[in-house]
């Protein structure tokens, strides 16, 4: 995304700050994870062209604001939880063990999270660029 001229910003809570630091360190992107309140994160979202995220509260917040989203689903069911509409796409690999989430609870994975690991960076980038092209960027 950066090679195509997009600025990348990582958002998240304090629990995600370690992985966000790792991502930001490798990509030289702006890391705001653990440094913003939910209200401040909402303000950041109002300035983005696309949110790429897992199934999270930030996903649904972006959808409420009408921000295009690309969400990655593994243990939870995108047919039940993904935002609806042309501006919202999701990636999900239908495996024999997925979805395993039940009633908001995700059990420990005996398969090494292969449902998420099977979504490749190429899958994400290809879909992100399709969304951004539709948005006229």
**Spatial extent as radius of gyration:** 15 Å
The number of distinct helices, counting runs of at least 4 residues, comes to 6
Tell me the distance between the termini.
12 Å
* Proportion in β-strands: 5-15%
* Shape category: globular
Q: Give the helix level as a range of percent.
A: 25-40%
Category from helices, strands and their pairing: alpha/beta
Mean pLDDT, all residues: 89
The number of strands is 5
Largest sheet: 3 strands, parallel
Task: Identify the strand order in the major beta sheet.
Answer: 3-4-5
Describe the protein in words.
- The structure is a single chain.
- The chain has six helices and five strands.
- The chain has helices at about 15-25, 40-45, 55-65, 80, 115, 120-135, and strands spanning about 10, 30, 50-55, 70-75, 90.
- The strands form two sheets. It has a three-stranded parallel beta sheet, sandwiched between helices.
Write a compact overview of the structure shown.
With 137 residues, the protein is an alpha/beta fold. It is built from six helices and five strands, in the order βαβαβαβαβαα. It has helices at 17-27, 38-45, 57-65, 78-81, 114-117, 121-134; strands at 9-10, 30-31, 51-54, 69-73, 88-92.
């Amino acid at each position: 995304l950066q090679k195509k001229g997009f600025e990348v910003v990582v958002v998240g809570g304090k629990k995600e700050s370690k992985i966000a630091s790792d991502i930001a360190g490798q990509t030289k992107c702006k890391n705001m994870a653990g440094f913003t309140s939910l209200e401040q994160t909402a303000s950041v979202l109002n300035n983005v062209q696309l949110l790429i995220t897992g199934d999270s509260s930030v996903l649904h917040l972006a959808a409420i604001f009408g921000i295009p989203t690309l969400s990655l689903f593994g243990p939870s069911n995108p047919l039940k939880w993904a935002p609806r509409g042309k501006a919202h796409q999701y990636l999900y690999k239908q495996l024999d063990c997925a979805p395993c989430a039940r009633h908001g609870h995700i059990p420990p994975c005996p398969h090494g999270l292969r449902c998420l690991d099977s979504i490749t960076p190429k899958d994400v980038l290809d879909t992100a660029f399709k969304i951004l092209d539709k948005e006229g960027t």
